[in-house]
Amino acid sequence: MLDSNFNAKLGDFGLAKLVDHEKGSQTTMLAGTMGYMAPECVVTGRANKESDVYGFGVLALEIACGRKCIELKAEENKQRLLEWVWELYGNKTILEAADPRLELDFEVEEIKCLMTTGLWCVHPDPELRPSMRQVSQVLNFETSLPMPPSKMPRASYLIPLISSSDENTDS
After folding, report:
1. How many CA atoms lie within 13 Å of 143's alpha carbon, on the beta-carbon side?
2. I need a labelling partner for 132 at 20 to 30 A (CA). Which of 18, 50, 60, 121 fits?
């Protein structure tokens, strides 16, 4: 997206809704770019402010690492950016994920802050993600750096296929 002076602006391209124009404004399904969509959006089809924070976290990691969130041509352990960075974070070697094109020409605390905040934003549990106000405070060094878990948590979303009232129909 561009503003009136043709300056690039970040747009929410990853969570656009597909619209069948013949049916009016009724949406047909949630569309999104794999890797940018929060895990709960994939399951529920609904986006919210927490899923926007997730997308911001992915973008922050891409900027810091100079890579796309999914690179199928990369080494097997580096194909999924989030998992790779989280592993380095857990091993206390997160700086290895910094964009090599920067040739170590960066402030170590700033890149660590960006990557750690990015991991905080992509936590699989939306309730454990920060608000954008918290993100801004951390990135501006107004508050302390978050401490995400040392291992990437796994999302576990259960969609009940049968309601509890359906289970007791035999009695």
Report:
1. 10
2. 18
pLDDT of residue 88 exceeding 50, the answer is yes
Identity of the amino acid at 164? S
Structure-token match 């978050």, residue found? 146
pLDDT digits (tens, 9 = 90+) for 135-148: 999 999 999 999 99
Angle at 94 between CA 68 and CA 99, to 5 degrees: 40
**Does the global pTM surpass 0.90?**
no
CA distance 165 to 151: 38
CA 13 to CA 32: how far, in whole Å? Answer: 7
Residue type, 84: W
Residue with tokens 């973008």: 59
- Which structural domain, as residue segments, surrounds residue 141? 35-152
CATH number assigned to the domain comprising residue 52: 1.10.510.10
- Split into its structural domains, the chain has a count of 1
Of 157, 165, 168, the closest CA to residue 43 belongs to 157
Contact 46, 54 (CB under 8 A): no
Q: Shortest CA distance to 69 belongs to which of 86, 81, 55, 57?
A: 81
